[in-house]
């Protein structure tokens, strides 16, 4: 889905591409819409694009339905390690955390890395040490583990004899936004893939892969298998296509097609450019997404599915 240019602020949110069971589709789409609406309310309170993508991401990190924050997948040891990135298109300032433990809202911690250090990314022990230094709250590991994530992990341990559909590992969350001052921003957050090696870092916290934002062109947040996304730096590739004159929808399609052709891998992206055009595209079965601009919210879950409602008609 894509929209025409507008002078209104725009927020687009995704809840991760993959294959969603029927009993989870409606509720996951509802939560993504809530996040987009709350992010848009932050615009109305004077928030910047950076504030808005952080707000929307934190809402989804706090929702156990998604593979981020409180609903994260488990690594080979049955533990949660989370990654996140946030990027300001005005300055290109970026903050990221990788393989960090006991953190429910890695997007907020990533913003602190951006604003309170001279670095772009902190990982594992260093990220935890920084969190303690700035007084960032930690949570018990068990608070981040859902029964669904534990069952998925147990299934994956038997994958050699009972193959598991890789599309089921959905749930990485993200947001992109354009504010009324022409600033764009992106944020992406994930618990990674089930049963990975301890310390595995995917695309999410890597600038240009999990996300990218530049006021001169636009912002992108990606979701999919990190190892493939990193090989083509998918977020930056889509921004490059926009720099060459493509619309967000055209750039997203071109980037996803290249990933699929070159590496036989599927993914999803949300994109906004610096004039307010936006797109939500994916090559998996599903990706819950929502976009808000003006007085309208757009949303979808399946390929080609688009719902449109006036904001005042929605009670969430």
UniProtKB/TrEMBL annotation:
Listed name of the protein: Isoaspartyl peptidase/L-asparaginase
Xref: InterPro entries: ASRGL1_meta, Ntn_hydrolases_N, Peptidase_T2
GO CC aspect terms: cytoplasm
Positions of the record's site feature: Cleavage: 171-172
Record key words, sorted: Autocatalytic cleavage, Hydrolase, Protease
GO biological process per UniProt: L-asparagine catabolic process via L-aspartate; proteolysis
Family of this protein: Belongs to the Ntn-hydrolase family.
Organism: Chiloscyllium punctatum (Brownbanded bambooshark)
A Pfam short name: Asparaginase_2
Binding site for substrate: 200-203, 223-226
GO function term, MF aspect, one: asparaginase activity
Catalysis performed (reactions): L-asparagine + H2O = L-aspartate + NH4(+); Cleavage of a beta-linked Asp residue from the N-terminus of a polypeptide
Membrane spanning residue stretches: none
UniProt keyword Endoplasmic reticulum, yes or no: no
Residues of the active site: 172 (nucleophile)
SUPFAM superfamilies (alphabetical): N-terminal nucleophile aminohydrolases (Ntn hydrolases)
Superkingdom as given in the UniProt entry: Eukaryota
EC numbers, comma separated: 3.4.19.5, 3.5.1.1
């Amino acid at each position: 889905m894509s929209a025409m240019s507008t002078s209104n602020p725009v927020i687009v949110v995704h809840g991760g591409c993959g294959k969603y069971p029927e009993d989870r589709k409606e509720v996951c789409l509802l939560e993504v819409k809530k996040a987009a609406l709350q992010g848009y309310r932050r615009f109305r309170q004077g928030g910047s694009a950076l504030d808005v993508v952080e707000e929307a991401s934190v809402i989804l990190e706090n929702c156990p339905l998604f593979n981020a924050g409180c609903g994260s997948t488990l690594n080979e040891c049955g533990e949660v390690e989370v990654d996140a990135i946030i990027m300001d298109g005005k300055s290109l300032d970026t903050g990221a955390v990788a393989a960090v433990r006991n953190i429910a809202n890695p997007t907020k911690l990533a913003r602190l890395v951006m604003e309170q250090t001279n670095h772009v990314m902190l990982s594992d022990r260093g990220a935890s040490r920084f969190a303690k230094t700035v007084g960032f709250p930690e949570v018990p590991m068990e608070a981040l583990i859902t029964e669904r994530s534990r069952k998925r992990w147990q299934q994956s341990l038997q994958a050699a004899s009972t193959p598991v559909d890789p599309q089921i590992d959905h749930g990485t969350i993200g947001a992109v936004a354009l504010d009324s001052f022409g600033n764009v921003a992106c944020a992406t957050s994930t618990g990674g893939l089930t049963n990975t090696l301890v310390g595995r870092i995917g695309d999410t916290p890597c600038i240009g892969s999990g996300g990218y934002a530049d006021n001169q062109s636009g912002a992108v947040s990606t979701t999919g298998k990190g190892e493939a996304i990193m090989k083509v730096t998918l977020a930056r590739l889509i921004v490059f296509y926009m720099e060459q004159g493509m619309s967000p929808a055209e750039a997203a399609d071109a980037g996803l097609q290249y990933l699929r052709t070159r590496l036989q891998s599927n993914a999803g992206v949300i994109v906004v450019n610096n004039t307010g055009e936006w797109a939500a595209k994916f090559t998996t079965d599903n990706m819950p997404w929502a976009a808000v601009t003006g007085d309208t919210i757009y949303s979808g879950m399946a390929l080609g599915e688009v719902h449109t409602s006036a904001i005042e008609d929605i009670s969430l």
